[in-house]
Amino acid sequence: MASQYGKRRAAALDDGGTEYLQRRREISQAAGRVFKDKGLQATNVNDVAREAGIDRATLYYYFGSKEEIFEEVVSAAVEANTLRIEEVQSGAQSAPEKIRTVIVSLMTSYADNYPFLYVFIQENLSQIGDKHLEWSRQMRQLNRRYEVAIVGIIRDGMSDGTLNAAGDPKIIAYGLLGMLGWTNRWFNPHESGQTAEQIGNTFADVFLGGITQVQT
């Protein structure tokens, strides 16, 4: 039975029908709501089907598992964020400008991929099952590349004097990422009175106000 569903999914995806793809997006959104409320590990397929207003069998026509839903959305977002920060790091902006760009970009990604990236932050990847160890490894590698890039931006700014900061660039970077990650506790793009871009710029003002070298 599982293989039959898999063949039907593959055929539907190859066909690329608009209605099928739209229904997949709706199921992904429903799954995201459940993941945010219960956590990935505690959620089962029946929970997702119930939230999406379909039965379990119908869900399998669109996705093979809850992990497939989660991984599909998160993988694309995490990879895009990593490529974006590496592009920013290698660009011609000053370090403060790069940091602002990164902050606004990450907040926007949190909104565009809500709530999947927040669930990703909250999950313990070490608890991922054996079938998903390769995916977990890939995500850890992307996270590492992201951290290396933001540390590099801060280190460069400290070296050229555009960032007036003392201490380990890695600690500063972790503090910045922690500030942004904590928004998972209160930011919902569908309910917020401010956009992700506005919030990102506010954070950038606060963060850079403390470490930007004042020019005289």
Written overview of the protein:
It contains ten helices and no strands. It is mostly helical and 216 residues long. The chain folds into two domains: 2-64, Orthogonal Bundle (Arc Repressor Mutant, subunit A); 67-211, Orthogonal Bundle (Tetracycline Repressor, domain 2), CATH 1.10.357.10. Helix 2 packs across helix 5. It is elongated. Keywords: DNA-binding, Transcription, Transcription regulation. One of its GO terms (molecular function) is transcription cis-regulatory region binding.
Secondary structure elements and their pairing?
Elements: H1 2-15, H2 18-38, H3 45-52, H4 56-62, H5 66-89, H6 95-112, H7 116-122, H8 133-160, H9 169-181, H10 196-211
GO molecular function: DNA-binding transcription factor activity; transcription cis-regulatory region binding
InterPro entries: Homeodomain-like_sf, HTH-type_TetR-like_transc_reg, HTH_TetR, KstR2_TetR_C, Tet_transcr_reg_TetR-rel_C_sf
Pfam family, one: TetR_C_24
